[in-house]
Each structure stands twice: as structure tokens, then as C-alpha cells.
């Protein structure tokens, strides 16, 4: 399915005007970055990169799209002719999916003619802004859970397509599973879930419902015990399933107290291996507040799919460098930047490296292209070594001549991103994992 | 495209267990409602209803979905056989799209067997929770703008599919247009947009960029004047386009001051008809703060597509009534409700009416089915008349025997919802339009 109309109208009117002015063919570098971390977060987690590559590949104007643009007189005939042949043939590089980022990190760089690259702005930002908001929130929840599994269960609290992207982003950030079946099918993410209150209410009694669930799903299932009365629900659950009952789920009430009481009750009933899962409007702070209780697993819904108070990452897509032409006659690269109050951009193509001392990240170094060849200088690694630091490159090739590198796509890309996120978060200094608002964990330095 | 896997796994495991227990065929009534209005809002606006009907119609399991469920052993063979033939054949009624709602309003009622109706929970909630969050935020912005047009420009700050739904919901709530082209194509919403800062940076000078834009789009276009210096940008814009310039856009800075200065400058240059559009991280409060300035139009992005601080509406889908069987032998209807702490539900099928005095809404009356026939009593209108009130029915038939009423679908449905929203908000008492946090504008009374 084409993504070409998932686009702001002004991308097309800019194209039309640039085709007329003769500037549409200028080689350009666009950069995705965020100006700040929302809500006093100390780090962000980039997600959506693999989906961006799919969206760019699917950015094609078919006859149906061209007919609609013509009927609505969105652009003129010359522009329609350009769009009919449009296929992105440029270069995309950027941070790996799952990477930790800071304000100003050059997250994605798109190189192509103005015409080619400007059209992609909206869909690139839609994907990265949402997916990274979820991953950034999810990573904090994973830290707060201190090794206990967290399942993503928020499909019902975000758009029906966003739900699939949210499951993917949360998994990349370290969640263990999702309730969303489409995320399981499309991205290979483990799915989970057993029953809701409606299942209990459907039956003549809680006991009948539990017997039905155990008959269908086995004694290893998780029974939801708070439809009527938790204490009685737990007693019934163990009576029906026996002490081998897999788990009970608590979805309401004062959880720290309830978890302790339920653990004691289960143990007294001999169900010492029965796990306790909690799922009631949890966020990273509620998860942290359950540290020290005998909780086994978490399910998180609304807060993770809505970015826990920061539902958009605030990334922008800005022109940072251009040439006067294209190809061999294109001339020198010129950094460009806007000067709008509070919204300045930094000109020049960039790459970045994370500087580490003894395996712990201490800074992020951004290397700006300064000899006009469009290739940022790579002597930063040498400079770092001179200071006794190691430099881990952050910028990878994602798409070459319009072809995505397959390692970043599909379930394989998701698995790689998840592993990479765990490693990148693991490099951060301990203070970065604090949940309280603060400054970004790593300073940005320019080479 | 099927919506069948945009579903939480537990809907399918509940189906499996209910098929085994023999309870899957019980006639059920599920109800969508919200327990509270987020953020101290005084009213909500329901959106997404038309999309819900489309999603229910598209909820079919094809061979690809069945194969995946079988491979993953999500459910057993009997359940797969049921899903292969699944098509919703029940009844859906609810509030019209664009309707104003309160906590506890019975927004949507789905009637069918447990098996038929339980499967729809996730996708129904995904659509309504997101779309209504946007519409509820958008309606406050429309009130704050006091008749000035507002365009929705937030596609880049929400998922790439959610962006289309957001444009639709904002338009229903009274926005004038959207930047999103797919929303224009799919839902018939007017689209708008001219140029971004990149267009100015692409050219050798701001003047060259403005000349290019005017050449392509005419002097009626809107020029973005804050790339370098607003005062110089405005001067250049009028010099290039002449005093017939359609508009200028301000996207940064202290807007109230800047709008006044720009208006004075434009007037001094003879461009007295040139309109001023502002677009810098606006929300309902920033819009209200521009009252009294000579601003002409607003563009709103992040805040509207993320629900202005409340990105999910908090709607739930609860079993409220059931019979012991189905059809003629189904027996009496029984209200059912869970008792979970802080999350209670109210049993019984419901309809609702808005009570008005002299055309102003004073309360919402919820009528619960109490004779067990599954049809709520309709004597509320009589009771209202006895009190000198009029009663406007809020519950409409949306889907009969699985077939949606076409008046709620497509661009026609969107236009009807937009007109209905304007009328429903227009009925509210003046205090309901205050932006400060407060109580719900209308009390709920039960008949």
C-alpha cells in the first residue's frame, strides 16, 4: 500500500514551485533531530527506523493518487509528471534502531535532490516521532521493572495501526511481549493474553468461568481474580486449578498491599509457584513503587502507547546542506540553517560517535562536514583515542541508492534493534536511569 | 484490508474457552463508556464512529490470518473453524459521531452472541479512544479561536495512519482544513499548505524563494516569513507579491507581539488584506491568548493530534447484560457488572437522551433496560415533558444485522458528524466552554 499521500500538502506545493524555479534538482541533505528531550527525560530511544525504510520504499504515486491530485488541482501537470516517475534513489544514513539519543543527535540523514528528499518529510517524521515516543517511555519502564517481564497491552488506547507500531517499539525497548496479534504476525513479537472480566461475567459464576478457562488453556494459565472480590477470587482460582496454577492477574485496587496479601494467600494455599501479574494503569513510577513487593510480571497499557506524558518525540526534518547543482557539476556543499527564534538549526551534514571511558558513555561527539565534500570528517575517533576514550560510531548506512539494507527490516531488524537497545542503555551512566526529571545524560560535543 | 488481527490475543483465548464451556452463544450486550473526562475537561466529543463501522465490516479472518493463528497455536481447531466463518451479524447502536458526551454516557452498544461481540473489543476501542481524544481537544481549540479558521497540521507528530484519523476527527470538531492529503482523498476534507523553511533555504535568498513560490502558486499564496528575520521577511514578501499578497505565516517568536507588529507593518505597506496565519506549537490556551490580536487564522499540530495532554479517551468496552441462551429460547436478560475497586461498571442495556430547557442542555438522562427485554424503556421523554424540558434522543441505530447504515460512512458521514458536533456543542451552557479544569458540564441522571 502506497504511503505517498500520507504527506502534508506543502511538500507537493514546494516541489511544484521548485520545479518552476529550477532549484528542484539541487543536491540536498536533510537531517532529523530533536531539540529537547520531553518531560525532563535523561535519554531517548530511537525507534521506527525499519518502518521508515519500508515507508520510503512504498512512497510511490500510482494512478489513483495521481488522478486525485489532478482532480483536486493540488499541483500542476509538470509536477504530476515528476510524481508519476517518483522513486527515492538517494542515500539514508542514521542511528541504528534502538540507539540511545540526546537533544541534537543527528538521527537520520537523507541525501538526494531537493525534489526527492523533501517529499519524504512528513511520513519519516510521523513514524519516528510516534515510535520513538513509545520506545523512550518503554525503556524507562523496563529499567524500573528491574528484570521482571513487562507485556505491552495498550492496543485499545491508541489508533488501530499505531497499536502495532507501539507493540513493536515497546518490544525494541525491552518489553517481553505484546497483546497485539498483528504485531506478532508482522514483526515476530511474542504475543500473550488469557481473559478479561467479560469472560467471568459471561458465566454463571466466577468458579464456572475459571473452570472453563483452565479446561481450555490448562492450569498454566493466568486467572483474572478481581472481578468481584480478590481474596475469594484467589481462593477459587487455586481450588479450581490446583497449586500448579500458572498465575493470577490483579487489575485494580492498591497494588503494593494487594500483591503482598495475594502472595501470602497463594503461599498459604500451597501455590508457591503461582505468579502474580499486575496490570492496572501502570506507568514507570507505579512500576518503581512495586519494587520490594513480590510481584512477578507487569502489563502496561495506556501509558506506554501514549509515551507516558510525551506522545510525540518532537523530531524535525531540516535542510542542513545543499549544493548549487547535482552530480559532477554540483559545486561545493553549503551548510544552511534557519534563524527562527527558539527554533534554530545547525547547518552541515553530520555524523556522530558515542565516547566511552571503561565502557561507560561520557559524551556524544557530532562531527560536522567542514570541507564541503558532503562527507563529515572521521578523525574524531583519533581525537578520542588521544584522550583515552573509545569512540563507538553511531551513524550507519540504512539505504543506498534508494535500496534499504535488509538487515534493518522485518522481524530480523526488530530483533537486532532490541539487542542494540539493551546494549546502548547498558552503556549509560547509572544516573541516566533515574526516573526524576533532569538534564540529558550525555553532553553533545562538536568536533 | 482485514482488521481481524488488530486485536488483543485474549479476545481469541476467551472465545476458545467459551466455545468449550458452551457459553459462547449466549446473547450479550457490550457497552462503550468512559469513567471520567481527562484533564478536568467539561465535555467530550465522540469521534470515530464511522471508522468503527468500517472496522467491524472488515473484521474477517482470511486464510493468511488463520494460517498464522494455527502456526502460532494461538487457538485450537474448533476456534479456527469458528473464525473462518466469522462475520458480525449483530446490532450496533450508539451516539452519533460528533455528539457531546459525559462520563458514563453509553456511547456504543454492541449486541450479539458473546463470541461475535467480544472479538470486536480491541479494534472498537482503538478507533474510538484515539479519534475522540483528538476531537475533544479540537473542539476546545475551535471554541478558543472564536470563529477564526484553524487548520490541522499535525501529521508528522502522530503515527502515519493515526495522522489521517486525526485530520478527520479535528475536522468533525470544527477545524477548517488539514495538511494531510490522504485525509483529503479518503474523507473529503479540504487540504491546505504552501511551503516550509526548507524551501527558503533551498534558494539563494529569501527573495528568490518568495518569487518562486508566487510564480507557482500566485499572489494569493501564504509566505512563511520567519526563516531569517520576520520584519525583513514581511517587507520582502510584499515587495515580491505586491499588496495583494494572500497571507504571511509566523512560526516562531512571541506571537501576540509579533502579530500586532506584523499587522501594522503590512498595513503600512498597503497590504491591508493580507492575512496573518500563526502556527507555532499552538494549543487551546495559546489560541485563547491571541484573542484581541489581529490574527486571522491558526495552524495547529502536535497538540491536537496528541489530544492536548489527554492522548487516549479512556473508553472501555464492558459486558453489561446477557441471556442464558440465544434467540427465542434465550431467556430473560440479566444485567451484569464487575465490582473491581475504582473500576465498577453499571449493568443493563442503556439508551440516553439529552434534556434541554429553552434549547440549552441541562442534563443527560440514561435509561436502563429494566424489564429484561433488552430494550431500554423510552418513557423518559414523557417524564421530561412533564418537567417542561425537551428530550433529544442520543442513541441512534448504527448497524442492523451486521450491516452499517450508509449515512454514517465515508465523506458523507464526516460532513454529517461535523454539522452534528457544531449543533451539539452549541446546545451546551456557556460555562461548558471554559478552558480551565472543572466538573463535567451536564449531570447524568438515570430514569
UniProtKB/TrEMBL annotation, chains A, B:
Main enzyme class: ligase
Q: Which GO terms describe its molecular function?
A: glycosyltransferase activity; nicotinate phosphoribosyltransferase activity
On modification after translation, the UniProt record reads: Transiently phosphorylated on a His residue during the reaction cycle. Phosphorylation strongly increases the affinity for substrates and increases the rate of nicotinate D-ribonucleotide production. Dephosphorylation regenerates the low-affinity form of the enzyme, leading to product release.
Q: What is this protein called?
A: Nicotinate phosphoribosyltransferase
- Write down the chemical reaction(s) this protein catalyses: 5-phospho-alpha-D-ribose 1-diphosphate + nicotinate + ATP + H2O = nicotinate beta-D-ribonucleotide + ADP + phosphate + diphosphate
The protein's annotated pathway: Cofactor biosynthesis; NAD(+) biosynthesis; nicotinate D-ribonucleotide from nicotinate: step 1/1
Q: Which residues form the Nicotinate phosphoribosyltransferase N-terminal domain?
A: 5-129
GO terms (BP aspect): NAD+ biosynthetic process via the salvage pathway
Q: What is its EC number?
A: 6.3.4.21
Q: Give the family from UniProt.
A: Belongs to the NAPRTase family.
Function according to Swiss-Prot or TrEMBL: Catalyzes the first step in the biosynthesis of NAD from nicotinic acid, the ATP-dependent synthesis of beta-nicotinate D-ribonucleotide from nicotinate and 5-phospho-D-ribose 1-phosphate.
Q: Which domain of life is it from?
A: Bacteria
Q: Per its UniProt record, what NCBIfam families does this chain match?
A: NAPRTase_put (TIGR01513), PRK09243.1-5 (NF006698), PRK12484.1 (NF009131)
Amino acid at each position: 500500500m502506497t504511503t505517498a499521500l500520507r504527506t502534508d500538502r506543502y511538500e507537493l506545493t514546494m516541489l511544484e514551485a521548485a520545479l518552476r524555479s529550477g532549484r528542484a534538482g539541487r543536491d540536498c541533505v536533510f537531517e532529523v533531530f530533536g531539540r529537547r528531550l520531553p518531560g525532563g527525560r535523561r535519554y531517548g530511544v530511537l525507534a521506527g527506523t525499519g518502518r521508515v525504510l519500508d515507508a520510503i520504499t512504498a512512497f510511490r504515486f500510482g494512478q489513483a493518487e495521481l488522478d486525485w491530485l489532478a482532480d483536486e488541482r493540488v499541483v500542476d501537470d509538470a509536477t504530476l509528471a515528476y510524481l508519476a516517475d517518483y522513486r527515492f534513489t538517494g542515500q539514508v544514513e542514521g542511528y541504528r534502531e534502538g540507539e540511545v539519543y540526546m537533544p541534537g543527535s543527528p538521527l537520520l540523514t537523507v541525501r538526494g535532490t531537493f525534489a526527492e528528499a523533501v517529499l519524504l518529510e512528513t511520513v519519516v517524521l510521523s513514524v519516528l516521532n510516534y515510535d520513538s515516543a513509545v520506545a523512550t517511555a518503554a525503556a524507562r519502564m523496563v529499567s524500573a521493572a528491574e528484570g521482571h517481564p513487562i507485556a505491552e497491552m495498550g492496543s485499545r488506547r491508541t489508533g488501530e495501526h499505531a497499536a502495532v507500531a507501539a507493540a513493536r517499539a515497546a518490544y525494541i525497548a525491552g518489553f517481553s511481549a505484546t497483546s497485539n496479534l498483528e504485531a506478532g504476525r508482522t514483526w515476530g513479537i511474542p504475543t500473550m493474553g488469557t481473559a478479561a472480566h467479560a469472560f467471568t461475567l459471561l458465566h454463571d459464576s466466577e468458579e464456572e468461568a475459571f473452570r472453563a478457562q483452565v479446561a481450555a488453556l490448562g492450569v498454566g494459565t493466568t486467572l483474572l481474580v478481581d472481578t468481584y472480590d480478590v481474596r475469594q477470587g484467589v481462593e477459587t482460582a487455586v481450588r479450581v486449578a490446583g497449586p500448579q496454577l500458572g498465575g493470577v492477574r490483579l487489575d485494580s485496587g492498591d497494588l503494593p498491599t494487594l500483591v503482598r496479601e495475594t502472595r501470602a494467600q497463594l503461599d498459604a494455599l500451597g501455590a508457591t509457584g503461582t505468579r502474580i501479574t499486575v496490570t492496572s494503569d501502570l506507568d514507570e513510577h507505579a512500576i518503581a513503587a512495586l519494587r520490594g513487593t513480590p510481584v512477578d510480571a507487569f502489563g502496561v497499557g495506556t501509558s506506554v502507547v501514549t509515551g507516558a506524558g510525551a506522545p510525540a518525540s518532537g523530531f524535525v526534518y531540516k535542510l542542513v546542506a545543499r549544493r548549487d547543482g547535482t552530480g559532477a557539476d554540483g559545486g561545493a556543499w553549503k551548510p544552511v540553517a534557519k534563524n527562527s527564534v527558539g527554533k534554530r538549526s545547525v547547518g552541515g551534514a553530520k555524523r556522530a560517535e558515542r565516547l566511552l571511558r571503561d565502557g561507560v558513555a561520557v559524551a556524544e561527539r557530532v562531527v560536522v562536514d567542514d570541507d564541503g565534500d558532503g562527507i563529515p570528517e572521521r578523525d574524531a575517533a583519533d581525537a578520542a583515542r588521544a584522550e583515552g576514550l573509545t569512540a563507538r560510531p553511531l551513524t550507519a548506512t540504512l539505504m543506498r541508492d534508494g535500496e534499504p539494507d535488509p538487515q534493518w527490516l522485518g522481524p530480523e531488524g526488530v530483533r537486532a534493534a532490541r539487542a542494540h537497545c539493551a546494549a546502548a542503555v547498558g552503556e549509560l551512566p547509572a544516573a541516566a536511569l533515574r526516573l526524576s526529571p533532569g538534564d540529558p545524560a550525555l553532553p553533545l560535543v562538536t568536533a
